[in-house]
Amino acid sequence: MSTLHLDAEALYADLVRGVQRLLQPDSALVGIWSGGAWLAERLQQDLKLAGQHGVISSALHRDDFGSKGMNASADHTKLPFDIEGRHVLLIDDVLYTGRTTRAVINELFDFGRPASVTLAVLVDRGGRELPIEPAFSAARVAVAPNQRLSLVKGDGGRFSFDVKED
Fold first, then answer.
1. By C-alpha distance, which of 11, 37, 3 is closest to 123?
2. CA-based Rg of the chain, rounded to a whole angstrom?
3. pTM of the model as a whole
4. What three-state secondary structure class fits 121?
5. Is residue 132 a contact partner of residue 98, using CB atoms and an 8 Å limit?
6. Dihedrals phi, psi of 6, to nearest 5 degrees
7. 22-31 pLDDT, tens digit each
8. Of 44, 36, 8, the residue nearest 139 (C-alpha)
């Protein structure tokens, strides 16, 4: 059992302010499946942004595909707008090694060439294996390598965190 206690709703309020500063004209929010998708959906509503948010999956571009295989329902990418020349703001719940972000960027470029790609995350837990850094993170926390930090979406859409031992 972990003693890590994070107030996901308070961090979400910080994320709203950070994303507001990062938005450019014609920006599109794209949430990384699944926690980032939940965040992007709520941000789209709370910031009263026109159009729809996108959802993107890393499943088709993971570098560990050979060892983990693919979930039968793994392709959750839905981009209801043109990526070409668009400012894309990627949203994720927890940034760790950077490998998911790398895979998502590869997936994004399968749909076109964006004008820019910016990353905002709820929590940066460190432990990067690739040179990927968020433009905004609501919190930076230390989590043991054998622990998994996950965003949970509860009844009524409220967020919390779950910490489990691997």
1. 11
2. 15
3. 0.91
4. strand
5. yes
6. -120, 135
7. 999 999 999 9
8. 8
